[in-house]
């Protein structure tokens, strides 16, 4: 017999005879799926016997048929369990545990021509996921969704960290910290800390052929899914049977519980590409910061950055210091004139006259270095898709195995020739960066790249939803306000930006943040809200399997001791733990190298100076480790020229020892731990 009475008492509702519940393996999380007296489907979530997500409606509005939101009954249910472990080809940790209980509730309308819908729920010890499953309908093969009616009614009060959805600037915003009741329309992940200390993160998993979900607050703490718009009116158009993305809620007693959480990965399908060992997690440098800071240009002319001679100089530096990749932006025709939000002039196969693509890739190969390709589209996917196959084949033939793509345009400014990737091209329509059309586009790019053994790192992307599990060549994304903003105005990102990213944007997946600006200076001498030590701590706090040392090579060479850390720190980990931190304040990680017995510890701080005690309990017992420490120097602060002060130390440590780190305002730290020999 199901525990219906207990659940009903906890949630303060009467228990209908057909209510279905599923609990997390440890029993602390209980999800109920049911219909009310009007036949409206809903779900509820209880945590440790208390309401967490109060009664929240489920359903859909369509453009060409009646809403699917009432006059329904439960037709049946099925259950399943999982307790497995799977291996990531690369990532924050090598092994991921997937232990959950599953409930599928089959709903049917009580009308003359009933429609059916399944709600599938998976309950983990650290969160839940649920999705809708539409069966095939012979009488109406096409489904046109106007809006999803999924609600999230947060029962306890609390604080939210979020960015505005529906804004011109996509995801590249400073996070707001407000009461939950002050959120308007938010992108996911949105993070909340409730009054009892429970931490929540709302996101989605397996976003495929569907519009991205925003979260709109309706009243008080009642939120509803809001799908990204489409040029065709219907926000989602699907044929035949299909499933929606998973609506994912991470649930944890601490901030660390949110971070050490693989919910979205576990809600995605396994690897569809097979062997992807050709992708090598690594660090890179690039002809990029010079354009970002205004010293060089992407366009042709005397300041053109991407020349053959300069690229060879960067390749030489990479070879000397063990960097695998060199990113080159602005090598191809199309950068002259107005490319922002335009992209009509781009060629993805024709280099500028002062850049010999084959000569450069040949030179790199001889040096043991790989060029990292770049495809900026200016938001014009029509132009890009027409050249996509040739562009990826060119890179594959030349041995370029990673490409950074870009979609620089205002939100809603994606230029397409149609509203669906399957339709024949005709005319021009405008789409959103996270609408169904762009979601289709990104997957097409990833699949075409995989055919040529190329990994993809999109900027101005659709948000990550764990699809790196299914398509492991989808190695990183931007999807947040990155390091480049620090080049454009004083303290542009602010000292608490990155410590907030750890607990918000980074919950979705790897980010190409581009750390390693050791000069802590942007264009025209603009000061950055960072100390030198923080630039090192970013390698531990902001994970990516491709990590840039973003500064000019002259600046990197001028900081030999810091460069030694950047050269040593891995881009692929066996284990990762958040050992200290709070949302928006600071984050200290311990990560173990996948390819050695070395551990690394460190992270980043906000504007408040603090001491953090690091406990080395994670080390192997009986071993002695040599600790090399990079830390904020005495009096360091992001606010003055003291941001350049950095100190060094060496210690011998063992399991159970502690280390006290002083973190400067806007500071950070990095520690390498090598087993004694």
Helix/strand layout:
Elements: H1 4-11, E1 20-23, E2 29-35, E3 41-47, E4 50-57, E5 60-62, E6 72-87, E7 95-109, E8 116-124, E9 127-134, E10 142-148, E11 151-154, E12 158-162, E13 176-179, E14 185-187, E15 190-194, E16 199-205, E17 213-219, E18 222-227, E19 236-239, E20 242-243, E21 246-252, H2 255-259, H3 263-266, E22 282-287, H4 289-292, H5 308-321, E23 325-328, H6 357-366, E24 370-376, H7 381-398, E25 402-406, E26 414-416, E27 429-431, H8 436-451, E28 455-458, H9 497-501, H10 532-541, E29 546-548, H11 553-557, H12 560-568, E30 573-582, E31 586-593, E32 599-605, E33 610-615, E34 624-632, E35 646-654, E36 658-663, E37 668-675
Parallel strand pairs: 22-23, 22-29, 23-24, 24-25, 25-28
Antiparallel strand pairs: 1-2, 2-3, 3-4, 4-11, 5-10, 6-7, 7-8, 8-9, 9-20, 9-21, 10-19, 11-18, 12-13, 12-15, 14-17, 15-16, 16-21, 17-18, 26-27, 30-31, 31-32, 32-37, 33-36, 34-35, 34-37
């Amino acid at each position: 017999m199901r525990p219906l009475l207990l659940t009903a008492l906890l949630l303060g509702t009467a228990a209908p005879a057909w209510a279905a519940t599923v609990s997390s393996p440890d029993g602390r999380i209980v999800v109920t799926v049911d219909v009310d007296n009007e036949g409206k489907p809903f779900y509820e979530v209880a945590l440790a016997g208390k309401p967490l997500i109060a009664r929240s409606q489920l359903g859909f509005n369509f453009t060409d048929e009646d809403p699917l939101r009432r006059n329904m009954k439960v037709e049946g249910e099925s259950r399943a369990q999982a307790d497995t472990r799977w291996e990531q080809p690369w990532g924050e940790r090598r092994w991921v545990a997937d232990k959950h209980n599953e409930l599928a509730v089959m709903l049917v309308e009580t009308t003359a021509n009933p429609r059916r819908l399944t709600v599938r729920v998976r309950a983990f010890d650290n969160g839940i996921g649920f999705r809708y499953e539409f069966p095939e309908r012979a009488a109406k093969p096409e489904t046109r969704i106007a809006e999803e009616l999924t609600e999230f009614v947060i029962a306890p009060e609390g604080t939210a960290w979020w960015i505005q959805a529906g804004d011109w600037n996509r995801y590249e915003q400073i996070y707001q910290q407000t009461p939950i009741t002050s959120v308007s329309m938010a992108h996911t992940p949105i993070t909340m800390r409730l009054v009892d200390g429970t931490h929540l993160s709302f996101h989605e998993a397996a976003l495929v052929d569907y519009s991205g979900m925003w979260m709109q607050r309706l009243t008080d703490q009642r939120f509803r899914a809001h799908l990204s718009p489409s040029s065709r009116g219907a926000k989602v158009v699907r044929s035949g049977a299909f499933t929606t993305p998973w609506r994912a809620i991470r649930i944890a007693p601490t901030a660390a519980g949110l971070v050490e959480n693989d919910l979205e990965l576990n809600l995605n399908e396994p690897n569809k590409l097979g062997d992807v060992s050709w992708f090598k997690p690594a660090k890179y440098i690039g002809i990029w910061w010079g354009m970002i800071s205004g010293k060089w240009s992407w366009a042709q002319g005397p300041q053109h950055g991407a020349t053959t001679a300069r690229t060879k100089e960067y390749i030489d530096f990479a070879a000397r210091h063990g960097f695998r990749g060199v990113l080159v932006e602005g090598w191809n025709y199309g950068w002259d004139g107005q490319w922002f939000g335009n992209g009509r002039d781009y060629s993805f196969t024709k280099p500028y006259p002062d850049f010999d693509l084959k000569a450069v890739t040949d030179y790199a190969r001889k040096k043991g270095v790989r060029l990292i390709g770049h495809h900026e589209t200016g938001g014009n996917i029509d132009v890009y898709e027409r050249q996509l196959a040739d562009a990826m084949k060119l890179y594959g033939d030349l041995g370029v195995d990673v490409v950074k793509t870009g979609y620089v345009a205002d939100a809603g400014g994606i230029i397409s020739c149609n509203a669906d990737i399957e339709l024949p091209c005709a005319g021009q329509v405008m789409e959103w960066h996270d609408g169904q059309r762009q979601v289709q586009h990104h997957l097409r790019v990833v699949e075409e790249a995989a055919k040529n053994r190329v990994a993809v790192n999109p900027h101005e992307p659709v948000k990550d939803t764990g699809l790196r599990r299914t398509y492991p060549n989808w190695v990183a994304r931007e999807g947040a306000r990155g390091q480049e903003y620090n080049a454009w105005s004083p303290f542009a990102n602010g000292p608490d930006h990155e410590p907030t990213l750890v607990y918000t944007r980074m919950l979705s997946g790897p980010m190409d943040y581009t750390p390693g600006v050791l000069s802590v200076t942007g264009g025209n001498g603009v000061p950055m809200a960072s100390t030198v030590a923080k630039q090192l701590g970013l390698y531990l706090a902001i994970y990516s399997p491709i990590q840039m040392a973003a500064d000019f090579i002259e600046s990197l060479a001028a900081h030999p001791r810091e460069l030694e850390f950047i050269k040593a720190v891995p881009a692929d980990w066996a284990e990762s733990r958040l050992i200290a931190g709070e949302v928006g304040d600071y984050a200290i990680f311990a990560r173990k190298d996948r390819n050695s017995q070395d551990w690394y510890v460190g992270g980043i701080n906000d504007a408040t100076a603090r001491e953090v005690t690091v406990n080395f309990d994670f080390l192997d017992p009986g071993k002695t480790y040599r600790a090399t420490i990079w830390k904020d120097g005495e009096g360091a602060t992001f606010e003055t020229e003291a941001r350049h002060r950095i100190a060094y130390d060496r210690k011998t440590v063992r399991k159970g020892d502690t280390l006290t780190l002083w973190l400067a305002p806007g500071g950070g730290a990095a520690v390498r731990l090598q087993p004694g020999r």
